[in-house]
Amino acid sequence: MCHTPREHQHTEWEDPHGDSTPLLSSTQSKSWRVLLPPIRYVVVILGLLGCMVDYLVRFGLSVAIVSMVVDTGSPNTSLPLPDGACPAALNNTQHDSVSGEGTFDWTVEQQGIILGIFFWGYFITKMTGGRISEMVGPWQTMAVSLGVSGVLSLLCPFAAHLHPMALASVRLLMGLVQGPSFPALYSVLARWAPPDELATMVTIAYSGMSCGSLVAMGTSGWIIEHLGWEWVFYGGGILSLLWTPLWLAFVRNSPKNHPFVTPQEFSLLSLNIHVKPKRHVPWSRLLRCWRFLPCIMAEFASSWVTTLTTTEGPTFLNAQIGMSLDEVGSVLTVGQTLTWFAAFIYGRTSDLLTKNGILSKINTRRLMHTIGMVLVVLGLCGLAWAGCDKWMVAVLLIVVMVGCPSTLCSFTLAPMDIAPNYAGTLSGLLGLGNVSGFLAPVITAQLITHAGCWTAPLLLCAGLYLAVGLVYITTLTTEVQDWNDYDEIPSTHDNLNV
């Protein structure tokens, strides 16, 4: 069960990760303070760029494989052509078939393994990555995660020429090392975001995911055409290695003793001094805190929608509606662009509502999730019954995509709301919901095969998102739980609440 919240214990924090050593002399530090914006803004911008680079490295293969193999086969068009497909789709089947011009004669099964094995490694380490980052240090963990990912991205072309399973092995390692990156960023932001800027900073940082997808779609085609598919991997790897030293130079685990923080900014962030990593996790208390379970369920539903729109969306638009591949690319580019801007709007609106006392924190979380839920559910239902009007379908799909980032202001903030000292651990546990990334494509394919159309998977997704959203809205809490200060709870108090 969740226990009665306690007041924070505002004690001085001696950083256990040894990251507070100034880089510059006091004179140099003062000159840098004049040149730099507030350091928390530098942290969030570098977080955004880190998320963008993470997605570029992660999804580069999905774009490059079209030009790597002789025939891309079915991994990108794995769903069967529905019996109820629109006439335009039936007419365009031959016209829009994709055939690669590469030299790798890989089977469909080999391509499927290469494309999917990353997410098995990612799923494994994301769950534990939050705790790893709290013990090692989130600043250090994220630097290692993206730095090593960059090196592995540079090795992908060599591995591909060596053997398809060599490339699969590199992708598995990439998934394993990237798993802790996002939970680590949670832990960093928990210490650098003032309470009235939390939602804004989180949404800006994690909007890098949409930015990365947008950059990948907008540049990969040009890169492949003019430089070759290898440079999709080289580009992502080089950007990762350029980002890493900037992160190491300008970010720390805590504002305390950061060489560039002004006294004014440190005073603003002084409320976060109590946020510190704990040596032990109160697992029994955490697991009995049933109000966190709907957050995992919400992540499951959100991941399902994201998989359906971004992974299966191109197949739906092409195979069901009959859009050309150029039209599909335009729709997804517009959708990702609007999603990126929507994330900023959700975050800033959320902070303004709480800062000005218009709504309480808990009701602001409810409002943001409700807005997104309405857009997603109505958009999915509209897609199910929109027929073959391709531009109406395009608008409805974009509506769904724009509704998705509202979750960055709802259950995504739960780790920081209820247990900021364990934000990394809890954000890793949210990753349990990502199992829907494996289930959604399989179930969607089965439903289309048996029903002969996309209506059933779209309505299933809408019903799942609505049901889970209602559970989350009615059960959420934003109160800091007493086990957040587990190390300070006296043994007698601990025994009374077991």
Description:
The protein is mainly α and 498 residues long. The chain has 2 domains: 36-69 and 104-277, MFS general substrate transporter like domains (Growth Hormone, Chain: A), CATH 1.20.1250; 80-98 and 282-498, Up-down Bundle (Growth Hormone, Chain: A), CATH 1.20.1250.20. Helices cover 69% and strands 0% of the residues. The chain is built from 22 helices and no strands. The longest helix is centred in the C-terminal third of the chain and has 31 residues, at 325-355. It is globular and about 65 Å long.
> Helix segment count?
22
Helix and strand run: HHHHHHHHHHHHHHHHHHHHHH
CATH H level of the largest domain: which superfamily? MFS general substrate transporter like domains
Instruction: Look at the structure and give the CATH class of the largest domain.
Output: Mainly Alpha
Given as residue ranges, the uncertain stretches (5+ residues, pLDDT < 50) are 4-16, 20-28, 72-79, 93-100, 489-498
| Span between termini | 9 Å
Strand content: under 5%
Helix share bin: 55-70%
What is the overall shape? globular
Domains counted in the coordinates: how many? 2
**Structural class of the helix and strand makeup?**
mainly alpha
Total number of beta strands: 0
Q: Write down the Rg.
A: 23 Å
> Which second-level CATH architecture of the largest domain applies?
Up-down Bundle
Mean pLDDT, rounded to whole units? 81
What is CATH's topology name of the largest domain? Growth Hormone, Chain: A
**Major pleated sheet:** none
